[in-house]
Automatic annotation (TrEMBL):
InterPro entries: Aminotrans_V_dom, Aminotrans_V_PyrdxlP_BS, Cys_dSase_SufS, Cysteine_dSase, PyrdxlP-dep_Trfase, PyrdxlP-dep_Trfase_major, PyrdxlP-dep_Trfase_small. The keyword Ribonucleoprotein does not apply. It catalyses: (sulfur carrier)-H + L-cysteine = (sulfur carrier)-SH + L-alanine. GO terms for biological process: cysteine metabolic process. The keyword Transferase applies. This is Cysteine desulfurase. Residues 25-395 form the Aminotransferase class V domain. One of its GO terms (molecular function) is cysteine desulfurase activity. Keywords: Pyridoxal phosphate, Transferase. Belongs to the class-V pyridoxal-phosphate-dependent aminotransferase family. Csd subfamily. Catalyzes the removal of elemental sulfur and selenium atoms from L-cysteine, L-cystine, L-selenocysteine, and L-selenocystine to produce L-alanine. Its EC number is 2.8.1.7.
Length: 412
């Protein structure tokens, strides 16, 4: 049975405040999650005791900083079950990780007529980089469609994976619909036709156990800030053979072995991809986050979110005028729910909820082609995390009903 996560809520100091005179309900976790005290303390401790640049110094502080920095690489490797720490590159986040694969790896391999396969529900950061690569190489960007309930259409994917498909890049969880894509099955299909598979794990790593070797993906990208770490730190996992084939996009200090006047040699993977002084604080905060999430348990987090979603969706659907998007089968979704209230603009709904202390997101969620496919310009999005509760669900529903009444009558 999954663990009760109630006691962990107290670890998040930001949640103890009032917003607009109401206890804060933070339902915008797909954008970024709140930080547990242990992560905040780890960052302070680093600056109070260990701050130094990594890799270069022989003094005690530099050694301490380097030791924590490289220990985190191993923690990340273990957390996502990669073979070794040298398959883990630190980046600014998912966006940078995906750009690095697109420009440093795929761009050198693609030729006119080749195809890049993504889905229509990709976040812009797993879409715009591929448009750029397609424009530069003459490759074609092909989209897998969705089922009517907002899941990736496997049959469509099967049909679109042909001898021309060289790259398949898919999100494991949609940041709009919450749908979970069976990446392992799709990877098997893609490898069968000889394509390279890239997975956008921005929404999955924070919310479920990840095993990159079991998924067998060739690259895997995610962001620390969506898990509990600082902003500006992310990861690109890549299989060794492919990382050795990838070209760095940035050159300078830290990534070189020897520099002569006219040429240089570079360090090995992964360091040749980490030019300049890295985000040391971010990396160390990621290490503390992973230790924290391991203590809570990724299986428990996933189960907790499914309990919350299973509670919330029927209550939402019971409100006249609410349209909920995404899979009806709870097993196929994570803690993200998009909806609209007929005749109300999502921004008005979000503003009215904020007046009642509830943080949700309204807009296109960096997924404009998906919005077009759904026939809407924007949605309201609730996204849940380990510290959210059934009581918050209840208060949210009451606030949403009050919001609806407000726009009818003019008072909350
Ligand atoms: N992919 C998905 C599915 C996301 O939800 C996000 C963040 N909203 C990103 C990519 C981009 O992440 P970041 O902004 O941290 O680079």
């Amino acid at each position: 049975m999954a663990k009760n996560l109630k006691k962990y809520r107290a670890d998040f100091p930001i949640l103890k405040q009032l917003v607009n005179d109401e206890p804060l309900i933070y339902f915008d976790n797909a954008a970024t999650v709140q930080k547990p005290q242990v992560v905040i303390d780890t960052i302070s401790h680093y600056y109070e005791h260990d701050n130094a640049n990594v890799h270069r110094g022989v003094h005690t502080l530099a050694e301490r900083a380097t030791e924590q920095f490289e220990a985190t690489r191993q923690l990340v490797a273990d957390f996502i079950h990669s073979k070794s720490a040298d398959e883990i590159l630190f980046t600014k986040g998912t966006t940078e990780s995906l750009n690095l694969v697109a420009q440093g790896f795929a761009q050198n391999r693609l030729k006119p007529g080749d195809e890049i396969l993504i889905s229509i529900m990709e976040h812009h950061s797993n879409l715009v980089p591929w448009q750029q690569v397609a424009q530069k190489t003459g490759a074609k960007l092909v989209y897998v469609g969705l089922t009517d309930d907002g899941r990736l259409d496997i049959n469509d994917a099967r049909q679109k994976m042909t001898g021309k498909t060289k790259i398949v890049s898919l999100t494991q969880i949609s940041n709009v619909l919450g749908s979970i894509t069976p990446i392992k099955e799709l990877t098997r299909m893609a490898h069968h036709i000889g394509a390279i598979v890239i997975c956008d794990g921005a929404q999955s790593v924070p919310n479920m156990p990840i095993d990159v070797r079991d998924l067998d993906v060739d690259f895997f990208a995610f962001s620390g800030h969506k898990m509990g770490a600082a902003t500006g730190i992310g990861v690109l996992y890549g299989k060794n053979t492919y990382l050795n084939d990838m070209q760095p996009l940035e050159f300078g200090g830290e990534m070189i072995d020897f520099v002569e006047e006219q040429r240089s040699t570079f360090k090995e993977v992964p360091w040749k991809f980490e030019a300049g002084t890295p985000n040391i604080e971010g990396v160390i905060s990621l290490g503390a986050t992973i230790n924290y999430l391991k203590e809570v348990g990724m299986v428990n987090i996933h189960a907790h979110e499914q309990v919350l979603v299973a509670d919330l969706i029927p209550m939402l659907k019971a409100i006249p005028g609410v349209v909920v998007y995404g899979p009806t089968d709870i097993e196929q979704r994570s803690g993200v729910i998009s909806f609209n209230l007929v005749n109300l603009h999502p921004h008005d709904v979000a503003t009215a909820l904020d007046m009642q202390g509830i943080a949700v997101r309204a807009g296109h969620h960096c997924a404009q082609p998906l919005m077009k496919r759904m026939g809407v310009s924007s949605t309201v999005r609730i996204s849940l995390y380990l510290y959210n509760t059934l009581e918050e669900n209840q208060k949210f529903i009451e606030a949403l009903i009050a919001t609806k009444e407000f726009f009818k009558n003019g008072t909350i």
